[in-house]
Amino acid sequence: MRKPELLAPAGNMEKLKYALHYGADAVYLAGTSYGLRAKAGNFSIDEMYEAVKYVHDRDKKIYITMNIIPHNQDFEGMKDYVKILEALGVDGVIVADPGIIMLIKEIAPELKISLSTQGNTTNYYSAKFWHQMGINRIVLARELSIQEIKTIIDNTPDTLEIETFIHGAMCISYSGRCLLSNYMANRDANKGDCAQPCRWNYSLMEKTRENEYFPVYEDERGTYVFNSKDLCLIENIPELIKVGVNSFKIEGRMKSVFYVATVVRAYRKSIDEYLKCPQKYVFNTSNLDELKKVSHREYTSGFALNKPTQEDQNYTSSTYVREYDFVGIVLDYNVETQIATIEQRNKIEINDTIEIMRPNEDFIEQKVLQMWNEEDQLLESTPHPKMIFRMKMNSKVEPMDLLRKALK
C-alpha cells in the first residue's frame, strides 16, 4: 500500500521548521512573486536557499508555488526566477497557467511541475492531457468525491502523481478562481491578494425596494451566504490511501505556527496509525479532538463523500471557533533543575492549567506553579508579547514543544 506524502504549508521559515518537526514529509511555499498568498511572509531568494538546505538536510521535499493567473507584465523577470529555482534544487513548482508551464519547459525542462488546483482538473481526460504536456503531478480540484478521485487515478498512468487537499479553508469559487475580491475590494485573488469577501455578511435587497430585505438570511443581521465551513478529512484517511492518492495537502500558509504544527501532527498520527495495521484500524477520535484545538471554522467533508448541502455552509457568522490559546514555545530545558526556557505567545498566569504538545507523543497537562523572568524575578503572569521566561515543568520537555491552554 502506497504511503502518501504529507504536504504542509510554510508561510515563513519558522512555520517550515515546525511543519517538518511535527511530521510533514514536504512543504510548499512561495517567493515574493508569482504565488497566491501575497500576504503570507513568503521567502526572499536568500531565505529560499536556506529553506531548501534545511529541508533537504532532513531528506524532505520542498515545492514552490507559481500559481498566479498572470497578465503579460507578470512574465517580466520570470525566466531569471525559474533559473534560480532550478539552481536551488527545489523539488518542483506548482503552476496554474499554461503560459508559465511553457516558459518553465523552455527554461528548465528538468524542473518538475505540479498543476495547481487552480487548473480545475476534475476528470481523467484532463489529467491525461496535462500529463502529456509534461506535468508530473496534478493537484486535483476540491470539487471531487473520493470515488471520482479513484476513477481519475485508475484511468491515468502511474507516472502521474495525484495530490489532493485534506484540510483547510474552502473557497466558494470554483477551485479558488474568484472575481469577488477584485470587484468589491480591488484586490486580485488570482494574483494572491484576496480580501476574502466570501466571509462578509450579506443581505439581499431589490434595487427599487430600499430597506426591504428578502428572506435569504436568518435574521436582521443578514447571512454569510458564501461562507463555507473548513475542510477536514481526517476520518477519511483510509479511503484516500486506498484509492492511491500520492500527496495529502494541508491548506494554510497564512496560519500560525501553532496551527501548522497541530494539524500536521494530527494527520501524521492518523496516517501512521492506519498504515501500521490497516486490517485492525479504528479511527482515533483524539486526533479529531486535536484539530478542534486550533482556531477554525466548523468542519465539513466538502465534496469527498457527496455533494455539499446547506449543512456545509455557515450562514450565521464568519468567526472562528477558538477554544484554546497558543501560549508559548519551549526554547530549552534543564534536566537537572526541571526548568524550561519559554518564549511567550499569549499570556500565562500562575495556577493556569496548560498542555504541552509534542511531535510524537501524547500531550502533557500540568498546572503552572512557578515562573521567572530573565532577571530571576518571580512572575505572576507573562504579559509581554514574546517575552522570554522560565517555568518549572512536571515532565521533561524538548525545544519546539508548544504550550496551549483552554480559554476560560
UniProtKB/TrEMBL annotation:
List, for all copies, the residue spans of the domain called Peptidase family U32 C-terminal. 322-404
Molecular-function annotations in GO: peptidase activity
Q: Which Gene3D superfamilies match?
A: Translation factors
Pfam families reported for this sequence:
Peptidase_U32 (PF01136), Peptidase_U32_C (PF16325)
Q: Where does the signal peptide begin and end?
A: none
Protease in keyword set: yes
Which BP terms does GO give this entry?
A: proteolysis
Which key words tag this protein in UniProt?
Answer: Hydrolase, Protease
Q: Which family does it belong to?
A: Belongs to the peptidase U32 family.
Indicate what this protein is called per its UniProt record: U32 family peptidase
